[in-house]
Amino acid sequence: MLGEPIRDRRSERHEGTKAEILEVAWRIAGTEGLAGLTLRDVARAVGMRAPSLYSYFASKHAIYDAMFAQGCREFLQGHDALTFTGDPLTDLKIGMRYFVSFCTDNPVRYQLLYQRTIPGFEPTPETFALSVAGLDRMRRQLAEIGITDEGSLDLLTAVGAGLTAQQISNEPGGTRWTRLVDEAVEMYFAHISERRKASDEP
Questions:
Q1: pLDDT one digit per residue (tens) for the chain, 202 residues
Q2: CA gap 73, 113 in Å, rounded
Q3: What's the CATH number for 1-57?
Q4: Looking at domain 65-200, which of 1.20.120, 2.60.40, 1.10.3210, 1.10.357 is its CATH number?
Q5: What does pTM read for this prediction?
C-alpha cells in the first residue's frame, strides 16, 4: 500500500548477523577469556570464513568496541529500571548494589568495561561516551545530596570496584563480599558526612 515504509531486508539481515557475531563473541570470551577471542573461532561458530567477518567488523578491536558499547547500554538500561526512594543513604545503597551485581553477574563484561584487559584496545570516543554516561549517573546522585568533589566520587567507585574485584577473584558466584555492600556504603556515607560537617564548622 502507498505510504507504508519499505523494509530494508538487506540491512536487517546485516544487523541480525552482527548481533549473532556479538552473541558468539561473548560466549567464546566467557570460556576462553577476552584475550582468547579469535576471529577464526567467531567465524567458525557463526558458520562463515574469517575474512567474511570484515564485512561486519573491521577488526577484532571493532568487535571488542561493539561488545563494550553493548555492555554499557545494558548497564544504563538496568540503572533506568531502578526505583529510588529519595533518602540519600538508601539510594546510595541501591545504586551500589546494582553496580556490584551488574559486575559480578558477568565477570567477562566487567573486565571489558572496567579493567584494561585487552592490550592496545581503547573504545572509540562514541562508545566511551556511553561509559561516561554511566559514571555521570553516580555523579548526579552524589550532587543531589550536596557531594560534588571528584575525590568523593573516586572513593565511592573504588569501594564498589574493590568489593567487585574481591568477589570475582576469590569467590566467583558467591556472596562473601557482595553482602558487605550496604555496610561499606554506610561507612562511606558516615565518613563523607563527617568531613562535610567539619568543613562547615567555623
A1: 455 666 566 777 888 999 999 999 999 999 999 999 999 999 999 999 888 999 999 999 999 999 999 999 999 999 999 999 999 999 999 999 999 999 999 999 999 999 988 989 999 999 999 999 999 999 998 998 888 999 999 999 999 999 999 999 999 999 999 999 999 999 999 999 888 777 766 5
A2: 11
A3: 1.10.10.60
A4: 1.10.357
A5: 0.90
Of 72, 157, 155, give the one whose Cα is nearest residue 112. 72
Is the distance from CB of 78 to CB of 98 less than 8 angstroms?
yes
Are 1-57 and 65-200 the same fold in CATH? Answer: no
CA–centroid distance for 197 within its chain: 34
Spatial CA neighbour of 193 closest among 139, 147, 150? 147
Residue carrying the nine cell digits 592496545: 120
**Closest by CA position to 96, among listed 160, 191, 47, 8:** 160
Alpha helical stretches, state H, 47-180: 60-80, 88-105, 107-114, 125-143, 150-170
| Class of residue 12 by CB neighbours under 10 A (exposed 0-12, middle 13-18, buried 19+) | exposed
